[in-house]
Amino acid sequence: GQVHRARLPDGTGVAVKVQYPGIEKAIESDFSPAAIGTRIGSLFYPGAEIDAFVAEARTRFLEECDYVHEAAAQSRFAQLFSGHPVITVPAVHEDYCSRRVLTSTWVDGKTFDLFLETGPSQETRDTIGKALFAFYVGSIFAHGLYTCDPHPGNYLFPPDGRIAVLFLQ
User: Fold this and answer.
1) H or E element at residue 66
2) pTM of the predicted model, to two decimals?
3) pLDDT in tens, 62-90
4) Which of 40, 96, 124, 167 has its CA 20 to 30 A from that of 104?
C-alpha cells in the first residue's frame, strides 16, 4: 500500500495506508500457474504436499490485502505493548478503516537509517535490540502471536527514545 499523512476531523494526525488498486487480483492471478506447478511437482515428489504449501502461501499473501485483518492485528499488538518502556504501536482508528484502507495515529520519528546516522550508543542499540527481540520472539511464546513483517522500514524512532513498530500484518 501507499501511506499518506492526514488529519481526522478532531485534528488527530494519522497515517492512512491505501491499498494499490488491483493488487489483490494480481496476487490471485500470480498463483494460478502455481496450481499447474504443484501437479508437476507432485510427480517428482509425491509425498511433499506441494499443493498444501502453495495454498497456504496464497492464503497468507491474500491476507496481506485485508486491512481489516491488519487493523485487528495492529490493535492487538498496541494493547499488548501499551505499557512497554521501549516499544510503541500506533493506535488504529477503526472508524476510518476498511478492507483497503488502514488508518492509525501518525508517529513522528527518524527512519532506521537516519537513526543509525545519529550514532546511538551501544547501550541504546542493545536496548532496542532486546525490545525488538521481546516484540517478535516474545510475542510468539507469551501470546501465540507473530507479526510477519520484521522489516526496518516498519520502524520509526520518535524523539522520546522509543521505537514505533508500524503496519504489523
Assistant:
1) none
2) 0.79
3) 777 789 988 998 999 999 999 999 999 99
4) 124
